[in-house]
Amino acid sequence: MDTVLLLTILIVVCALAFDFINGFHDTANAIATSVSTRALKPRVAILLAATMNFAGALTFTGVAKTISKDIVDPFTLENGSLVILAALLSAIIWNLVTWYFGIPSSSSHALIGSIAGAAISAAGFGILNYTGFIKIMEALLISPVIAIVGGFIVMNILRAVLKNRNLFKANKRIRYLQILTAAIQSFTHGTNDAQKAMGIITMALIAADLQTGDDIQMWVRIAAATSMGIGTSIGGYKIIKTVGGKIMKIRPIHGAAADLNSAAIIFGATLLHLPVSTTHVISSSIMGVGSAQRVKGVKWGTAKKIVITWVITMPISALVAAVLYQLLALFS
């Protein structure tokens, strides 16, 4: 079999594996609040998330096109197949390590950092599309800030609306609302995160001269959506435990506020064709909601560990991808 074709097949397999891991790694964030407040049983929540993720992944392609061309230009990238393979392996390794330790890190940061690191290792810093790369970085950095502020505002609005209501009865009714917010959250996750694997596969097809444009083929969309759906169905209980209870003690009203806020931000980014970290957005929304309730109620020690992981994810992923590219190039 032709080497380039073999590498392309291997990339497709790894990209779908990345989406599968992303399913049980990141999607846990989308249902963490509804599970922790017992609005949904874990199995039901995971089934709901898998279904809505699949639907969301098939609906949009704008983020996939951004990933496929705005970090590096796949039409000019030499040894493109090796670059993409190294990037995927690096992102998968980081996701598995953070999942094992129950740390809600960003799959988006891992993947984007890995693509940049492998490309720089192959062709130097000049290979980066700085206009597109800076745009992506801005979205990744600004979205958590917007999520914290938004979570604070949404929580205060809900508190004002429910000011004269019986809190116990209100929380009981809000649990039903959480079923809807968990579904919306999972759908928006699919519209953004599943597209990253689609973009990677499209990059590989272009690099192998198997595709001449940046359109996302239907089989790529279906394969990525299915892979993420299956991954979601397995669930990520370690991440659910961290997001759902170790940042703050979450009541139904907190969960609903955080879900509505983060879903709006993620879907807004999807409409703008910008990849954002669902982990960052959801965790930041919970911090914002907790701050509105009581600043000391947020477990800032856990929040600090999450933030540190956010900061180190991209440079470590880039470094690992750069080393992997050199190893792959050596053996190839």
TrEMBL record:
A UniProt-annotated Pfam family: PHO4
Domain of life: Bacteria
Recorded topology in the membrane: Multi-pass membrane protein
Keywords: Membrane, Transmembrane, Transmembrane helix, Transport
Metal-binding listed as a keyword: no
Transmembrane segments: 6-24, 44-63, 83-103, 110-133, 139-162, 306-328
InterPro entries tied to this protein: Phos_transporter (IPR001204)
Subcellular location: Membrane
Protein's recorded name: Inorganic phosphate transporter
